[in-house]
Amino acid sequence: MAQAQATRGSGDPMKAQQEQPEPIQYGHVFAVTGDLAVQAIAPRDAEAMRTAEESVQGVQVPQASGGGFSAAVAMETAATYNQAVGAVRPGQASDAATKQGITVTQTAVPGGRIVTEFVAGQVVGQYSVADQAMMQQQQVEEDTSKVTIGEAMEAAALSAGDRPLEEADAAAIRAAETQAQGADEVMPGGLADQAWAAASANAWAERDEDKITVSDVLSVRSLREMHRLPSFLSYK
């Protein structure tokens, strides 16, 4: 009597193995098309982009200035993953990058430059860089604006003389302080807070001679502090 023979599994042993993860391709990260889109991002590609970015004199890539990620950062991350899963070898470069190159260009525009990053002739990154001279000029204009606000308040103090400070005066001082600081909130304990406290106290004072005047709050010393804006002083 014939014995039944044990049958072997009909499945392919290769299918039992874990499938290799799909590599990160250029099309997964950047808005590119054609052959470049389906090529895995390789270590040499990322190195070439980093070198190209650093060759643009005086230009900080976005992540260095708090504005996001440059193409090199994205490519380095993708290449590290691809190498870890065995999709690319250390030191490997993609065909597109090898044949058509990786470049970074800059184009002058009013007020700065536009930096554009290319892989195989396709754009993988673009951002603007403000001209340093213009940025310095804007800073000077901002500083001048702060001083002008202080000077205007000093003139107001001189013209108001010994008039008791009212809520309208406190509101004007608050508006000037927020504009000088470039913020919506006033500085706690600052000149605006002092003005509101003075206006509240004056509302309860029975005699004018007991009331706090505009010139009391807008003293020369407090106005000088407002020019510097680190802190504000108490009344005289």
From TrEMBL:
<feature type="region of interest" description="Disordered">
    <location>
        <begin position="1"/>
        <end position="23"/>
    </location>
</feature>
<dbReference type="Pfam" id="PF04927">
    <property type="entry name" value="SMP"/>
</dbReference>
<protein>
    <recommendedName>
        <fullName>SMP domain-containing protein</fullName>
    </recommendedName>
</protein>
<feature type="domain" description="SMP">
    <location>
        <begin position="24"/>
        <end position="84"/>
    </location>
</feature>
<dbReference type="InterPro" id="IPR007011">
    <property type="entry name" value="LEA_SMP_dom"/>
</dbReference>
<dbReference type="InterPro" id="IPR042971">
    <property type="entry name" value="LEA_SMP"/>
</dbReference>
<keyword id="KW-0677">Repeat</keyword>
<feature type="domain" description="SMP">
    <location>
        <begin position="147"/>
        <end position="205"/>
    </location>
</feature>
<comment type="similarity">
    <text>Belongs to the LEA type SMP family.</text>
</comment>
